[in-house]
Specification:
The chain has one domain. It is 44% helix and 6% strand. It has six helices and four strands. Helix 4 crosses helix 6. It starts with a helix and ends with a helix. The mean pLDDT is 88.
């Protein structure tokens, strides 16, 4: 969200999908020690929300020899955030609410049905958690006229 959409000024970790995983984890551990970063600064937990219909773009992201950097499109990111639909229960808990709100505004989505149509492009309707539907309804009700 920080790099691809400039949605917020900072993040606690970098969500990434990387190969070869063992080699990248070793390199991340070296960077973590050298830079004094938290142990899990490079996080591959997002792989649990990958869709076979993924949609990514390099956009304005930096590119390097031997390293390809891409980010989900706004639609795909919204779908992944809805699938996770984490709600913080404490200040230290991760939450997807602000990111979902940002993406709904960015995509000019005003109804839960429109948001769920996007989610449905990436995931079967039967996999969408009910909490995602309730969260979308709640967020969009806040901004309703």
């Amino acid at each position: 969200m920080v790099l691809a959409f400039n949605a917020r000024p900072a993040t606690r970790d970098v969500d990434a999908i990387f190969e070869p995983a063992d080699l990248i984890r070793e390199a991340a551990a070296v960077v973590q020690r050298e830079q004094g970063l938290p142990e899990a600064w490079l996080n591959d937990g997002a792989k649990g929300f990958l869709s076979v219909y993924h949609d990514v773009d390099a956009g304005d992201l930096p590119q390097f020899d031997g390293l390809r950097i891409v980010a989900p499109t706004a639609e795909y990111m919204l779908a992944m955030k809805c699938m996770a639909s984490r709600i913080a229960h404490a200040d230290t808990d991760p939450s997807d609410v602000a990111d979902i709100r940002f993406l709904l505004i960015h995509l000019r989505i005003r109804t839960p049905e429109a948001a769920l149509a996007i989610v449905g492009r990436f995931y079967p309707a039967g996999r969408v958690p009910p909490r995602a539907v309730y969260l979308l309804e709640s967020i969009l009700a806040e901004s309703a006229p």
